[in-house]
């Protein structure tokens, strides 16, 4: 259909980038010895090496080709000394991702990543193509006509920005914003950014001056995380059509993802403390070898479940009920409880011995205490249940509660017990999705585990 | 093999001879390491042998509880009494299988069957050779009618 075509020259740059360390190693050695003649020799060697590797990159670019055939299948070819072909059929793909990082945008290239529907169907393929070729490839392999569209606006976009950042720094932002009482205003993003500069002064009132570096580090991380998340939501939209769910957006790094709906393996709604405060919940999708932990696909508001149903037909949330806790393992509390107790004890001791360290030790104790509170929720609500033809689960991790719905028709399941669990009729359940993602639900009632196993067996 | 002729459910357990082969395999590393431990002292050697023998005995007990059952939609493997494990592999997800026999297993009339599915694999060690073939054929045949992709 397309005939054999070459990749974009950036395809070869990918190889050059991997060899950067080769140039740096001799330079570092010489710089430490401060031998300038040797430095000049090393630079000459680097230049020769660079010329050689550029030639190799040119050969790689020359020997690699791609082609779309009449049936819409993609052929990747390598023809130098050895001839190698790889055939990628549309139905074997779960996700097609088109990225336009800054460098690629400047050179007119797009990075197309093809994620197979299951492990064992070949590796994830990464191809640098021209913009037009990338669009042609994506439209052929996974056409996504926009039949239903969703644009996050106002508060929803703000929620997408906030929930896409890392949780610790977001907590700080939300706390500060709530103090101002204007978190939902249209200028809340600007307000949040302005407040960042005031954070140092605010914390310095009750933290020892020695902790300034910690504050600075957190602020910088927060700024980067927020900027990245904000950049992701610029011109962001989600649409569905032709059995494909797609999203597109981004400022500096524009990303478009297309999910084949019949290959989606799991939808994960993450209830973080911030999400609960804002009453807006991010939805993450995994499909085949695409893990989907990076950015949420969209954010929906409480009571807006119709949007969920429109974008992800067949999605079922785990039933909202408390699980029986009789005989449940106390392992839920160990990951956060042990460090919390340790830091609390150290803080108490430091009050007598070194009072200036008390705040420093109390802070992590507080953080881990929040983890213990989250574990309490996990203790009461974690579980797995078949629900309306889907396997659903609730799993607590850190401060978040993951509400998952398994779409894959063939997930693996492992149910294991220890002697204590046998006596108490409890079991740990592990769900294995086609891409290799594992969800481990702890100490659920044996009857619930049996129901999940029977759901897959019958 | 025709699916309609497939006995449902197909249930597989380990024969005593196959279990003996498994125990022999498990004992071999201990037998190899024992002289080095005895070199450190008679008591150390005796303790090592007793410990290893106990492990092999426990393995034999665990192997005795092994069952694999092929249902219409999934293969279910149950293993262990004190630490029971139940694994469910949907038939639709199983992509390939590997059967191998060593001379000892051939003498015992058994094979090792390894099943691969995306993200997971399962070994059925020392199951009767005929049942391994049956399982293989049933699992790698065309998907059951209700599972056929639309």
Automatic annotation (TrEMBL), chain A:
Domain of life from the UniProt record: Bacteria
User: Could you tell me the keywords of this UniProt record?
Assistant: Membrane, Transmembrane, Transmembrane helix
- Kindly list the residue ranges recorded as spanning the membrane: 12-32, 47-68, 158-178, 206-227, 330-349, 361-380
Q: Which protein is depicted?
A: PH domain-containing protein
Question: Do the record's keywords include Membrane?
Answer: yes
Q: Does the keyword Chaperone apply?
A: no
Signal sequence, start to end: none
From TrEMBL, chain B:
Taxonomically, the superkingdom here is Bacteria
Where does the chain cross the membrane?
A: 43-64, 104-124
Q: Which keywords does UniProt give here?
A: Membrane, Transmembrane, Transmembrane helix
Q: What is this protein called?
A: PH domain-containing protein
Record organism:
Faecalibacterium gallinarum
List the lineage, top down: Bacteria, Bacillati, Bacillota, Clostridia, Eubacteriales
